[in-house]
Amino acid sequence: MADQRTQADEQDTWIPDDEWEAIVANVPLVSVDLVIRHEGGVILGLRENEPARGEWFVPGGTVLKNETLTDAVHRVADEELGVDVTIESRLGTFEHFYDTSEVEGVDSKHYLATAFEVTLDDDTLEMDAQHSRLEVFEPPYENLHPYVERYLQALE
């Protein structure tokens, strides 16, 4: 498994694998999720990694040390989609409990995820390795991951 980032990109600081394992095993992770409104629906990515592998999910990521939530939104949009976004609203903070993890020896993951409604500043999406596809899902939304459904309910 690759080491995890702890600071903003320009500082190039990493958490060693054994420390990341201890964090995931013992501490909820603070994260941001992007609910991207686009063409009458929302953009979801088909996840290639845990948690939620094989599910259509919103882009998101862990908040780095000394990073504001809004800065994290912009960094995640750039890293996962290669775009800038405009934050339209803050949908709230949600707890996510998963019974899987990408960390060997850790069988669960807990997030405190703050969801933001955003729009794209540019339509040229560049998908990262976490997603095999990106698609626009339009209402009525059906058969999506329960955490995604909560976000979509919060949009209403």
Automatic annotation (TrEMBL):
Keywords: Hydrolase, Magnesium. It comes from the Archaea. Its cofactor is Mg(2+). One of its GO terms (molecular function) is hydrolase activity. SUPFAM superfamilies: Nudix. Residues 25-156 form the Nudix hydrolase domain. InterPro entries: NUDIX_hydrolase-like_dom_sf, NUDIX_hydrolase_dom. It holds the Pfam family NUDIX. The keyword DNA-binding does not apply. The keyword DNA-binding does not apply. Gene3D superfamilies: Nucleoside Triphosphate Pyrophosphohydrolase (3.90.79.10). PANTHER family: GDP-MANNOSE MANNOSYL HYDROLASE (PTHR43046). This is GDP-mannose mannosyl hydrolase. It comes from Haloferax gibbonsii (strain ATCC 33959 / DSM 4427 / JCM 8863 / NBRC 102184 / NCIMB 2188 / Ma 2.38).
